[in-house]
Amino acid sequence: MVGGAPPAGEDAGGAVVMLTGSHGTFCSGVALTRDLVLTAAHCVLAGAGYKLVEFDAARQPVLKDLGAIARHPDFDVNAVLRHRVTADVALVKVAAALRIRPAPLAPDGGSVAPGDRFVVAGYGVAVRGDGKTGGTLRAATLVATGQPGTLQIRLADAATKGERAGLGACTGDSGAPVYRPIGGALAVIGVVSWSTGPALSDGCGGLTGVTPLVRYRAWVAEQAAKMGSPLPP
């Protein structure tokens, strides 16, 4: 997260993990059960190997093997590259149970209006292009802008509105959970899919593009059950 985002607290960061790929990529994800992680489909493309990174009590990284990966059948990687709408969601089954506390999915229903506030937490870089600034879990509160809907939500720093450099997702934050406060707790409403620089330029610190789960929640629940890790009621 760029723009000076602070380290994430337990409420936003307790369920967030990192995924690394054999092609040098890294992403974020969120545990929905002790052995099932939700992330962006473009983070776990076919043709590469992936590991999950969990941090122990001493904040040392521990690599976890993956048991299975399920990408939504309607996912189109070319659409993501163009910042277009697609089913950019995937589930990752972990071979051994995680130590972290899973996060709840937001319930069905509920609309999003411009100005609504969301919390994003990910392991992405703090400075664009500097991979050494990644790997620290950071969180930012962003607001919905434009015309948010069930296909895509665009978030921005409330102070800069995406016109100047501000808080936002960057490299490594793809797949990060986007939370909404519901009933006094944070619930997952979507995952990070892309970002822009200020005023729609290339980069980070402008808009954070989110794939909301409202259209894909049923698939997530059905796939979780198929993978042997049914979601809590």
Folded structure, characterized:
With 233 residues, the chain is mostly beta strands. The protein has 3 helices and 12 strands, in the order αβββββαβββββββα. It folds into 2 domains: 14-102 and 216-226, Trypsin-like serine proteases (Thrombin, subunit H, Beta Barrel); 104-212, Thrombin, subunit H (Beta Barrel). The relative contact order is 0.22.
Number of domains as seen in the coordinates: 2
- CATH fold category name of the largest domain: Thrombin, subunit H
Q: Considering the protein shown, what is the CATH homologous superfamily of the largest domain?
A: Trypsin-like serine proteases
Sketch the topology as an H/E string, one letter per element. HEEEEEHEEEEEEEH
CATH top level class name of the largest domain: Mainly Beta
Oligomer: single chain
Major sheet characteristics: 6 strands, antiparallel, barrel
Q: If you average the pLDDT, what whole number results?
A: 94
Protein topology:
Elements: H1 10-13, E1 16-21, E2 26-33, E3 36-39, E4 50-55, E5 61-71, H2 77-81, E6 90-94, E7 117-122, E8 138-145, E9 153-156, E10 177-182, E11 185-195, E12 207-212, H3 217-226
Antiparallel strand pairs: 1-2, 1-4, 2-3, 3-6, 4-5, 5-6, 7-8, 7-10, 8-9, 9-12, 10-11, 11-12
